[in-house]
Design goal:
Strand content: over 45%
Shape: elongated
Structural class: mainly beta
Order of helices and strands: EEEEEEEEEEEHEEEEEEEHHHEEEEEE
Distance between the termini: 94 Å
Amino acid sequence: FSTNEVFFEKTQFTGPGTNILFGGTAALGPGGRQALTVDGQLNLRILNSISPNVFLSGTAEAAVRVGGTYEQPRLMGTASLSGASIATLVGTERLMLANVKGLVRFNQNQASIDSLTATLGGGRVTASGGALLEGFTLAKFRLSVRGDDVTVPYPQGFRTTADADLDISGSTREQIVTGTVNLRRAEYTEDIELATLINSRREASLTEGGGAGFAASTQLDLRVEGRDALVVNNNLADVVGSVSLRVVGPVEDPIISGRISATRGTLNFRSDRYELTRAFIDLPPRRDADPILNIQAESEIRGYTVVVSLTGPLSQPQATVRSDPSLPQADVVSLITTGNLSSGQTSTSTLAQTGLGTAASLLTDTLINAPARRATDKLFGLNRFEIDPLIAGRGGESPTARLTVGRQINKNLSITYSTNVTSDQNQVLALEYRVSNRLSFVARYEQGSVSGFSSRNDNFSFEIRFRKRF
C-alpha cells in the first residue's frame, strides 16, 4: 500500500459462478498510476443488490486492462455476456430480456457494442452503439435497438406484439427514446363497465409503484402505427381497428395523441349487436384531454334498421338516432332501450315522449342490471339480466316492468327468456343463431295473454334474417 496506490500481486475472488483474478497497481488518489489487469468470470446475481427493480442472472466474462492515472484512467479490453437474463419492473409488470449474448469492447475512454442479441416476449432484440466514459463513469451513450415480433403486456390490459426501431441516447441524468413502433397485434379482452368508462379519470402512470431511477428521467418521442392491428373483444365490442399515435413526454406520464379508427366489427348494447359503419376516436395532444368520438353503428331491431351516432367528448357524448323505415324519435329510443316500440293501442309512451327512456335504461343497466348480471352469472350461469321500466303500459294498462334473462352459449348461439312482472306475464322464449353479422336464424315462442283485457293466442315463429346494403 501507499498513500495513493495499492498493489495486487495476485488476488483472486471465487464463489458460485465467479472466479475473478486481479493483478497490478490500482490508483487510490491524485497522482496515483493505474496498471491493473482484471480477468475471469462474474456471476451477475452478485449485482442484484444494486437496484431493487433490476434482476440479473447469467455469467459475464472480462479481460480488461486499466492504465493511465487516477485522474484519467484508460480502459482496454473486452467484456462479454452469454446466456444471461435481465429483468425489470415497469409498474406491476415484469419485462425480461432472456438469452442475452453480447460483446463490449473498451478503447481508452470509449465503449462500443460489437454485438448484442436477446429475446423478449418470444421475439428477437438486437442492439448496437457505444458510450463515452469519464473515468469509470458513463458520460454519454447512444444505442440503436431493433425488436422483431416482440410481445409485451402494454399498455395496461393489452397484449401487444410489435416491431420496433428505437434510438436511446443521453446520460445518467437524462435520457430520450425516439423511433417507431409498428404494431402487429394489440389485443384487449377485459370486460368494461360502460359507466366506469364514461366516468373514468386518468389512471396511474406506467411506472407507478415501480420506483424511480431510469424511468423517472426518461423522455419519449415515439410514433405508433398499426393497420388492422388493434383487436378489442369483450362485453362491449368485437372490433378490428387501426392506430396512428404519437407518444411524447416523460415515460411516467406521456401525452398520447393521434387517431384510432375501426375498420370493421360490432358493438353490444343491451341485447342487440350494432354493426360499425364509422368509428374514429381522436386523441388531442393535451394532457388529460377527453377523447373525441365519431362513431356510427346500426342494428336490426324488430324489423327496423336502427342507426345510432355518438359524437363529441367521451365524458359527454352526444347521441342521435334514426331508423329505416322512419319512426318517431320516441319509438327509435324505445327500440334501442327496451326492444319494443313505445306506442301502444293508445298513444306514445310518456316515458319515451319525455326522454326518460334513455335515462331509465342507462340507470337500470348501470345500477341494477350490470351488478345483477354479474351475480346471476356466478350463481346460475346467466350472463344476461335486465329490468326494463315501462311507465305507461300498452292499451292504458298499469305501469310495469319487464324482466329478461339469458345465456350466451357461444359466440353465435344465445337463448333468452323474457316476462312482464305482472299478472299478465306475456312470456317470450327466443333462440338465436348468428351465422354472420348479416345472416341469423331466430326461433321464438310467445305466450298468449291471460288477461281479461285482451285476447291473444300462443305464437311460435321462425325467422331468417338477412341484411344486404344497396
